[in-house]
Design brief:
About 25% of the residues lie in helices and about 45% in strands. The protein has helices at about 1-5, 20-60, 155-160; strands spanning about 70, 75-80, 85-100, 105-110, 110-115, 120-125, 130, 135-145, 165-180, 185-200, 205-210. The strands form two sheets. Strands 4, 5, 6, 7, 9, 10 and 11 form a seven-stranded antiparallel beta sheet that branches. Strands 1, 2, 3 and 8 form a four-stranded antiparallel beta sheet that branches. β10 (about 185-200) and β11 form a beta hairpin. It is rod-shaped, with a radius of gyration of 39 Å. The relative contact order is 0.16.
């Protein structure tokens, strides 16, 4: 009978500690909080990375630079000069080079290259409407004929007698640089070259473009 009257008691944990339901909930909340913190850190790193990428693109890819238009190598075909007259005429081939350093094509309108002697026009050549591709140079072959027939400069005779004829070339290109197929930026480019011919050898002495 004594055995029947004995009450049954739950066994205590071997470590002597019983975890309550409140402590279990607190532990779950702590894990969730740590997960939220990690997620916030990951989002912050991602946002910072995106800002760095956008900044880098704005400083490089999205920055629109002015294309450059220059004369290329000049191959003299004819060069005649008479200091006594004074007069000269010349014919040569060269290239109009449009250098585009942008991450998108540069589409430019037709233009005129003017050749000058001391500010007076001695000839012109046309540049057709075209396009310089991304990070490339558009090369346009042209044949140029120049003559002093319209000049009235008193200095021409003395310059021809010196053996060196100095001319200038000028042009202005207008067009648009297209980036990412969505952004178009108007850009104008100017040519300013100085050409020196050696009259005795009838060859190009020097070509300098700014």
């Amino acid at each position: 009978m004594a055995e029947k009257n004995q009450q049954a008691y739950p066994l205590a944990p071997t470590n002597g500690y019983t975890r309550s339901d409140a402590e279990s909930l607190e532990s779950v909340d702590e894990l969730k909080r740590k997960k939220r913190i990690k997620l916030a850190i990951y989002i912050g790193i991602f946002v910072l990375f995106q800002i760095m990428v956008i900044t880098a693109m704005s400083l490089t890819v999205m920055k629109v630079k002015t294309p450059k238009v220059r004369l290329g190598n000049i191959n003299v075909q004819e060069l005649n000069s008479v200091p006594a007259s004074p007069s000269f005429d010349t014919k040569f081939t060269t290239q109009i080079r449009v250098k585009n350093t942008n991450f998108g094509p540069y589409k430019f309108d037709a233009a005129i290259v003017t050749f000058l002697y001391q500010g007076a026009t001695v000839g012109q050549v046309s540049i057709p409407k075209s396009k310089a591709g991304m990070l490339s140079t558009k090369k346009i072959d042209v044949e140029v004929s120049l003559s002093s027939s319209a000049l009235s400069s008193s200095n021409l005779g003395s310059e021809l007698s010196s053996g060196v004829l100095t001319l200038n070339s000028a042009a202005k290109l207008t067009g648009k640089v297209e980036l990412m197929f969505i952004m178009k930026k108007k850009k104008s480019s100017t040519m300013d070259c100085t050409i020196a011919f050696d009259l005795s050898s009838k060859t190009l002495k020097s070509l300098q473009c700014k």
